[in-house]
Amino acid sequence: MTIPSRLSPLLEQFDFARRRLSDRMAGPVMDSGDGTETKVGPMTDEEYFWEPVPGCWSVRRRVDGPGPRATLLAGTGDWGRDTASYPHPWPPPFTTIAWRLSHLSEMMTLRADHTAGSRALTRDDYPVSGDSAAAVAAFEAAASAWRKALLSVDDAALDTVGYCTYPHGSDPEEPFLDIVWWVNQELLHHGAEIALLRDLHRAQPH
Length: 206
Description:
- The protein is mainly alpha-helical.
- It contains six helices and five strands, in the order αββαβββαααα.
- The strands form two sheets. Strands 3-5-4 form a three-stranded antiparallel sheet. Strands 1-2 form a two-stranded antiparallel ribbon.
- Strand 1 and strand 2 form a beta hairpin.
């Protein structure tokens, strides 16, 4: 299928942001932003779970229960991601790399399913990763699934309100093109946050 002209720049932006984050997490090199390659090691479990301030939301063993101000652990499996029923705590808790990466991967996996899959998955179906290597692999699988879903749409789909039936966002009220844009913004800003947390962790006295 030919990629709609309106989708092409968003797909290019997605690919760029995905590669920047993937390289920043896994190495062995990353683009520093000016075309210069900088060596970077794979993200460790210590970084993945690092809580730079008290009261962080993170990914936790289900048997340990939710963290501060969280009321439940989202997802399935032995691990879950801190969350709370509405209204959410205010101000929002600071979140770890583990939390942010799980959120990104879940969002892309579910939106891919609700665009070109069963249209049935919910957060309760998503397995949460309990270590850095598994989380990076889950991110790659989620990003690939979302990209594949994007390649299945045409111009008519881009204009269709509710084309993606993802149940945890504004998707039922938005044209699909707006959802594509939104996913890119999620990847860009959470990717930047994850990169910054890696930098801050590295700068800590050891």
